[in-house]
Specification:
The chain is α+β, with helices and mostly antiparallel strands and 984 residues long. The protein is built from 18 helices and 42 strands. The strands form 9 sheets. Strands 1, 2, 3, 4, 5, 6, 7 and 8 form an 8-stranded antiparallel sheet that branches. Strands 9, 10, 11, 12, 13, 14 and 15 form a 7-stranded antiparallel sheet that branches. Strands 16-17-18-19-21-24 form a 6-stranded mixed sheet. The chain is 19% helix and 27% strand. The structure holds beta-D-glucopyranose (BGC). Beta-D-glucopyranose (BGC) is lined by residues 7-9, 348, 366-367, 416, 463, 546-547, 672.
Length: 984
Amino acid sequence: MTLARWPAWLFAALAAVIVTALLTVPGVGHAAPALLSQGHTATASSTENAAFPASSAVDGDAGTRWSSAAADPQWLEVDLGGPHTLTQVVLNWEAAYAKAFQIQVSSDNSTWTNLTPVTAGVAGSQTLTVSGSGRYVRMYGTQRATQWGYSLWEFQVYGDDTAACNTANSALNQPVLASSTQDAGAFPASAAVDGNTGTRWSSAASDPQWIRVDLGSVRQVCGVELNWEAAYASSFQIQISNDGNTWTNLTQPTAGLAGNQVLTVNGSGRYVRMYGTQRATQWGYSLWEFVIHTVGASPTTTTPPPGNCPWVKSTAPVADRVNQLMAAMTNAQKVVVLHGNGATGPYIGNTDPIPALCVPAMGLQDGPAGVGDSLDGVTELPDPSAVAATWDVNAAKNYGTVMGQEFAGKGANIVLGPTINIVRDPRWGRDFETYSEDPYQAGQTAVGTVQGIQGQGVMAQVKHAAAYNVEGGASRGTPSDNVIIDDRTLHEIYLPAFQTALTQGQAASVMCAYNEINGTPACQDSAVMNTALKQATGWDGFVGSDWGSATGGAPQLANGGLDMEMPGGAFFGQALLDAVNQGTVSQSTLDDMTRRVLTQMFKFGLFDHGATGNTGAVVTSAAHTQVAQDVAAQGSVLLKNTGVLPLSTSSIKSIALLGGDAIDPQNIGGGSAKVNPSPAAVNPINGITKRAGTGVSVQWVAGAGEHVQTPDIPSAVALAQKSDVAIVFASYGESETDDLASIDLQFSQNDLISAVAAANPRTIVVLNTGSAVTMPWLNNVAGVIEGWYPGQENGDAIASLLFGDVNPSGKLPVTFPKSLADVPASTVQQFPGANDRIEYSEGLNVGYRWYDSHNITPLFPFGFGLSYTTFGFSNLTISAQANGSATVKATVTNTGSRAGAEVPQLYIGQPAANGEPPHQLKGYQKITLTPGQSQTVTFTLTPRDLAHWNGSAWTTNTGAYGVFVGDSSRNLPLTGTITVTTAS
Ligand code: BGC
């Protein structure tokens, strides 16, 4: 049984709240309530299975949990080891919380006293003030809120602190990170926690600087000692954090001194740092030792690196280095790199290091549109729909390069992205974060992005394999998330983009999805992971799970082809070791999993250099925001233009901007692909006002929009009437975990557009939607631009298009239907599914393939997009061989009066007997032409481009294959034929 899960991004946000709750630092003179329960013995009335033991609720790890059997009543109890006075209980509930429970206390584990009345739980964190004393404390649940059991991420009991501050050094040999080092060889951060007062950390000579120790779990910290070298801090603070990200001061700004300085502090958290704001000398900050004292035992200290890990910085081939390291590893060490440590910081996913073998920790971070998971100092790029709509692999590469640089600057090793799932339906909540309805286009866009990311030394984890195209609300990740799909469709539509990303793009990793495929959870699906992704391609990377998508058992997952579990180790920790011992997972499978992960770690230099950055670094830059603006402009699609565009400041003297999105735009979608803007987003009002200049009056009235409390369409109409041109901004929002019910604009936005269009014949509509949207007013407006979710440079990008500084060249990566009645998955059985089945009964007929097969005229076809110039197509030549290999050439001419870019698209039509949809995209290029200029483009086709999946292999039949070239799936003026006489 799988419990309904929280999305990891939501969980991270919640964890941040919990951090704040845990990090209360007392004022002077008040004793802080101590966390008494952590690490103590916990027992429970039952557990759902071995993956969710009682101990997970008191381990300080908010990524692991206790879950009971699905029955009432149930209890979870902790033995505090001795009597204590109790003041507070914090329950961090998973989605399966208690509708009714009580906190009870006992001195003898037999007679219980209620500390609270019957209380209703909440999904999330719940803090209860209690008053009582005893040794045993329990949550006694009498009524469950869901059909599942009772599930707690953490159960924390606070009270008097009788335990003394331990004199041992809890920082000793713990993982440590510093903002900088003066010289990483001579003065590394680790020298400050090595117990050796003859070696030291020394920072660069600037302010501020910090050194941070990871205590491995949340600890009650009671003292620190700073053994300063001559270069001490004249002002610093000791700070504490649960995630290495959000910090709370444990001290006031304090003056250091040359020599040993002992400070008493009080707070709990996992990470402790010295944060220096002023140096005492012209040098940096320099510490011989940074000692931390905690309440209770010190964390288990890790063995310091022996200093002879010959695979580190070696120039031997990667395979030899992997072999050398694996020969030194026990199975217990191998599994360390195969699962997350459950922590929610510093990254959304974290593996532990193995110091004895010089294996570094890894950080995995969202996501597909730039650095996510609430980190700041990053560039909010346009959404991946916009990248796909550029139809330009180089633009994707530039976008990926910015991502790679920003993730590296934040110190992350693996990007959880790009998302490359097929857009099967315009209602999917994650359409904005993925690319295309076409497998070839999705694959090519993925290749560009992955190469950009990985060119910066960061791994890309393309996601989510496979056939994950519905959120289905609460059913995501449950057995009702069961995709029923035929093998041919899986291979022809849903797997190729992944295979292309791994072969052509050399992506280091793939994430397996939440859904089931014909009843098999995707993360256990050997036919997908072992056969299609690994064996069929010869790929040497690794498959990681989505957050909580690993279910079932270690043998099912490991034998199914999963290599790394995230975010915790319920299956790939002890359970995997047990499975190898019992023979249900073979030693060679464990070795293959380990080899795959280590191979990528070596390839990406993780054994050659230290951390490439840290989560606090500011990684955005002017160059990055320029790429954000360029991609937003190049991905915007001009859908209609009766001549109103481009705007000219010599003829236009007044512009009316309308719609809530002009001031408060939908720049990105929600969920793990959400990115914060830095320093601030440029909205359309600001971008357009700046570009229009002083000679043009730009005024704004909201009228209607998602965040507009009281629609006021008459005021919008009045402004439109008296202006030379009216531009209405309209949007819908998409988010992970939520599908759309409709693709119609909501919040009176259609009424606003119709009313403005009636008032001003020069009305332009700018749409910010993650996928297709209906346009009931289309015939009445003069211009339409689809700008997707344009990211933080929205205003400057749209201004450059409206005024013709950039000539539009984006093309639709998805079909826009006239209404939902026309879409391929129009029944509820198909989308979002019913009765534990999501029927992919449209088969191969996804996107334009459906509209072509059924002769349905879309509102705008796949591949469509206008320009301020015009283009002509001529001179199709085809030189083909007997097996179908061919070189196809076509000439494209700019027949208008402006420079612009066009995207010639090549489609293949298979012989009817093959049972394929009429047209399939097999090539495209983006070319820029000056007025009158012509260019011949060349497409190379292989037999595989003409093949279909026959149930076990790709087959190219003999017969006549149509070749079509043009500027959209529905405008293909050049046609020819390839005749295959040799089947393959
Ligand atoms: C999403 C993934 C994401 C992960 C980590 C999951 O809920 O499906 O796309 O990478 O969380 O945030």
